[in-house]
Specification:
The structure holds two protein chains of two kinds. By secondary structure, chain A is α+β, with helices and mostly antiparallel strands. Helix content of chain A is 23%, strand content 33%. Chain A has two domains: 230 residues, Rossmann fold, CATH 3.40.50; 118 residues, Nucleic acid-binding proteins (OB fold (Dihydrolipoamide Acetyltransferase, E2P)), CATH 2.40.50. In chain A, the strands form four sheets. In chain A, strands 6-7-8-3-9-10 form a six-stranded mixed sheet, with helices on both faces. A five-stranded mixed β-barrel of chain A has the order 11-12-13-20-14. In chain A, strands 15-19-16-17-18 form a five-stranded antiparallel sheet, with no helix packed on it. In chain A, strand 9 and strand 10 form a beta hairpin. Classes of the chains: A alpha+beta, B mainly alpha. At the A-B interface, helix 2 and helix 4 of A face helix 7 and helix 8 of B.
Chain lengths: 367, 276
């Protein structure tokens, strides 16, 4: 039996340079440039219509860009037809060939590459074993469960040792438990065979769980690319702050000017002055949005900090989320981990809210 | 008897009545066709119903008459050429309409539907005038061309239906596996739309084999198709041979339809996907 290592390939990187794709008047992808490192697991994350799938299809060769270049391993493949790109691809709906057995499906790419029958079968069986489906080779795809079918699809995509594996929301059709299991399994497999992966998803948890780096897209534009930690801790745009994890936004106006990363004072709509870090340079007196995570808010004695009133307490086992109304009529969420000191305040109780200035980020209109 | 029970039985009676009407309509529609069968085995020189005996002499007459056999063979020849041409061209057209990015798709579609909308008699006159100039009347090529045009819409729409049921991502999967467009078609698309293509081919054959209007015009004295020969027979000597030929044509059509249904359901079973 072949070991997983036998499927490993010398991985290579991808460079996308100034990619533009228009559908009619709509720019589905708007001047996106990014680089994927060899052996890296990159997630393209965004809501529907953000252009993430279009970028993947351009890498796969199913969409040709209007502008820009795509290089894989330094070689310009922008205009190479999909069948000659030698990239692995896993689709959302498994897309196994229903008239072929599982083994024939996996052997298909090898057959197209002129590999002999005996070697084909041996390598297909090894790939089947890599995805832990030994003994299922003779079945038809329709006789497998959704999770098994997707594993076969992955085996078919890696059997010819592609340099890059492209995955288009491959787990979104699976139910929650299976999806979480497959996320970890896919991640392990990627590490074992060391292939470069570009993975499209609209599920931020999935992106954060699996990816080395995440590229966040919105309306065809690259918002930010970075490690899950970077995106969560230092979002560069209000969209990223809102899309990755949970965030409270408060509208306000700067009381002083500040350069990027500088601590500034902001007057909230209720007139209360708070502190936050400026994201980009901000002038004095401009409107800003302050983003702060629910778990970074803390409760202080009523009369201190930003005054608020407890509206609702939502108990979720490992944490309790408090919904707090501020004088300006806004509702903020505050998370108290379970097992902390002191009980939750009662509903209707007046409290004070505070946070460390470095946990709050002020986004100007441009961000 | 409880009220509920009565209600149930009246619903049952209603359903039976609908069934009876449906069968009555079917029989009414089929009767003229079925009447021809007993008439074909009567021993007398004239068409008579009910027959006053049983004889296969009119079948023997048909097989013994070179005119009938030549017309039949010519019709078969035309049918086979038409089937191949219409299926190949129609499948390509359907693929182009679904997958292609060709400009003027609407116009192509309109041209394909054309032969269904234009009265056959008008088409027949037009073809006669053109074919006469080109010396194509009474030739295999002429008939095959005319019948291919008539069969094309049915082939295109049957294959289109199969293509719409087919998941285009399977083609993308094949391309990403390294199969070029032609091998993708051969290994993935064609096997999966095969039931539709087989139906389309049989449609094309039947349309050609019993096409009468156009054939009436573009036949000549030497070379005529079976339906044209049948027309002539009605005009000159109404013999029970005609009934025998009509019976055989009907049976052949039934066999073809049942056969196509069986092949289709077999292929369907083979290619069914889990997501269906």
């Amino acid at each position: 039996m072949l070991q997983p290592a036998d499927l490993s390939s010398r991985s290579i990187g991808i460079e996308i340079d100034g990619l533009v794709k228009r559908f009619g008047a709509v720019k589905a992808v708007d001047s996106v440039s990014l680089a994927v490192e060899p052996g890296e697991f990159l997630a393209l994350l965004g809501p529907s219509g953000s252009g993430k799938t279009t970028i993947l299809m351009a890498i796969a060769g199913f969409e040709y860009p209007d502008e820009g270049r795509i290089r894989v391993g330094g070689e310009d493949i922008t205009w190479v037809p999909p069948s000659r790109r030698n990239l692995g691809m896993v689709f959302q709906k498994y897309t196994l060939f229903p008239h072929m057995s599982v083994l024939e499906n996996i052997a298909f790419p090898l057959k197209m590459r002129g590999v002999g029958r005996a070697e084909r079968e041996e390598r297909a069986r090894a790939a089947l074993s890599t995805v832990r489906l030994d003994g299922y080779g003779e079945r038809k795809p329709s006789q497998l469960s959704g999770g098994q079918q997707q594993r076969v699809a992955i085996a078919r995509a890696i059997v010819y040792k592609p340099r890059v594996l492209l995955m288009d929301e491959p787990l979104s059709a699976l139910d929650k438990n299976l999806r979480e299991e497959m996320q970890i399994e896919t991640k392990h497999l990627q590490r074992e065979i060391g292939v470069t992966v570009v993975f499209v998803t609209h599920d931020q948890t999935e992106a954060l769980t699996m990816a080395d780096r995440v590229a966040v897209l919105d309306h065809g534009r690259l918002q930010q690319i970075g490690s899950p930690h970077d995106l969560y801790e230092t979002p560069r745009t209000a969209f990223v702050a809102g899309f990755i994890g949970e965030t409270n936004f408060c509208a306000g106006r700067t009381l002083c000017a500040g350069v990027a990363g500088q601590r500034i004072s902001v007057a909230l709509a209720c007139g209360h002055a708070v502190e936050a870090l400026a994201v980009g340079a901000l002038a004095e007196g401009v409107p800003v949005k302050i983003a702060i995570r629910p778990e970074r808010l803390s409760l202080v004695e009523a009369g201190g900090g930003l005054p608020a009133r407890v509206e609702e307490a939502i108990y979720a086992g490992n944490a309790t989320t408090l919904l707090l109304a501020t004088p300006s009529g806004q509702t903020l969420r505050l998370r108290v981990p379970a097992g902390g000191a002191g009980g939750s305040p009662a509903i209707g109780e007046a409290v004070g809210l505070s946070w460390r200035a470095e946990d709050a980020r002020a986004f100007g209109d441009a961000a | 008897m409880s009220a509920q029970h009565r209600q149930g039985s009246s619903r049952h009676a209603g359903r039976a009545a609908i069934g009876a009407v449906a069968y009555a309509v079917t029989v009414f529609l089929l009767l003229p066709t079925l009447v021809i069968m007993p008439m074909s085995v009567g021993p007398e020189r004239y068409l008579r119903f009910p027959p006053n005996g049983f004889s296969l002499r009119w079948y023997a007459e048909y097989f013994g008459d070179a005119d009938w056999i030549n017309a039949t063979l010519f019709s078969l020849e035309i049918g086979v050429v038409t089937t191949i041409a219409a299926t190949v061209v129609g499948t390509m057209l359907a693929l182009a309409l679904v997958r292609g990015r060709l400009p003027g798709k609407g116009l192509v579609e309109l041209l394909v539907i054309g032969p269904v909308i234009v009265p056959h008699i008008a088409l027949a006159v037009a073809m006669f005038l053109v074919f006469e100039q080109l010396r194509l009347t009474g030739t295999l090529l002429g008939f095959a061309m005319a019948h291919t045009i008539l069969a094309l819409p049915f082939v295109v729409f049957t294959v289109l239906a199969a293509l719409y049921r087919f998941d285009a991502d399977l083609e993308r999967a094949a391309l990403s596996c390294g199969a070029g467009p032609l091998r993708t078609f051969r290994h993935v698309t064609l096997p999966l739309i095969a039931p539709g293509v087989v139906s389309a081919a049989l449609f094309a054959f039947i349309i050609s084999f019993d096409e009468a209007v156009v054939s009436f015009f573009i036949s000549n004295l030497d070379r005529k198709t079976l339906p044209r020969k049948m027309f002539e027979d009605i005009d000159y000597n109404v013999s029970p041979t005609l009934a025998a030929v009509a019976t055989m044509l009907t049976l052949l059509t039934i066999v073809a339809l049942v056969g196509s249904h069986l092949i289709k359901s077999r292929l369907d079973r083979r290619t069914r996907t889990a997501t269906d």
